[in-house]
Amino acid sequence: MALNFTINTSNPPLGALLAAEHVKGSVQVSVEEGKDTQLHVSDAIQFNDANSISRYLARVAPSLGLYGANMMEQTEVDHWLEFSARRLCGQPGLTVALGELDKALSLRTFLVGHAITLADLSVWAALKGHKEWPNQGKSFSHVNRWFSFLSSQVPFSSVGNKYTTKKA
Amino acid sequence: MALRELSSLEKFLGLKKPNKYSTQGDKKVPVLQSNNGPALVGLVTIACHLVKEAKRPELLGDSAESRAVVQQWLEHRVTKLDGCTKEDVKTVLKDFNLYLQDKVYLAGNQFTLADIFMYYGIHSLIVELAIQEKEQYMNVTRWFDHIQHYPSIRHHLPPVAVLRNRIYTGRHH
């Protein structure tokens, strides 16, 4: 099964790109640059929303555990996907949201379970693309540690470098 | 204790043939008699040797700086942590907690031998902590929980129950 992933280069969906990078060993995904973000699964099925694309990619590669290891973790992942879309993507009230995130990360290395999940990808991508995050970083030490830890890992570093410089 | 740690390290490294160790002196310092050279003495010396044998040099740090940090924590483990008295425990945990505030692993963003041996060494202290104390040293707790879930590290040690959300959030540390 070959998937065709087109990305809008003026507003690249970082979270979905990270998900695509993570699953590329298990699923065939080709990434192309274009006007609109879209994952073409078949002529009958296409996804346009970044979170839907991430969810689909995580589900077709279940062995990677990007959607968590059990039903509880799956629900947690869903929580963070919604959190990133509603509270972090250019919304006002970033400070309050970061406060909650900081509290959640105080006893965790990854947001959900003990390994990388969509939750980390999606929240990291939302912060990476947020104009105010670099100024706010210093006040939230747990978020800051988690963010720079992920930023130092492949594919976060490669995706981050490739697509955010283009955006600026 | 040290011998069990070395055998757990062998399993983690995937070394096929387990070594036979002896001990030396009252403190039971581990000794490894290698086939083609002099005997190796001491926990850290033998551990570094096993890492090289398994061709996993990145576990000793991948830059000059991180190599120095790894050795520093390995030394800290055998000099400060081992044989630390009841009175010292709080200071040791407090300093360690402060150090881990902005780090995922001891050498920053990279998992190393220092994490393995600090985890083995601090396990007996963490087991003794009350829930509230675990939260007080939350950076230690977070690091500890991450390492005990790291693939094939735990072996000879029992898992420690760790809360993943804070419950004493009124207090600031």
TrEMBL record, chain B:
Keyword Protein biosynthesis among record annotations: yes
Listed name of the protein: Eukaryotic translation elongation factor 1 epsilon-1
Domain GST C-terminal: 49-171
A Pfam family recorded for this sequence: Arc1p_N_like
MF term (GO), any: translation elongation factor activity
Gene3D superfamilies linked to this entry: 1.20.1050.10, 3.40.30.90
InterPro entries: AIMP3/p18_C, Arc1-like_N, EEF1E1, Glutathione-S-Trfase_C-like, Glutathione-S-Trfase_C_sf
Keywords: Elongation factor, Protein biosynthesis
Source domain of life: Eukaryota
Gene Ontology, cellular component aspect: aminoacyl-tRNA synthetase multienzyme complex; cytoplasm; nucleus
GO biological process terms, semicolon-separated: positive regulation of DNA damage response, signal transduction by p53 class mediator
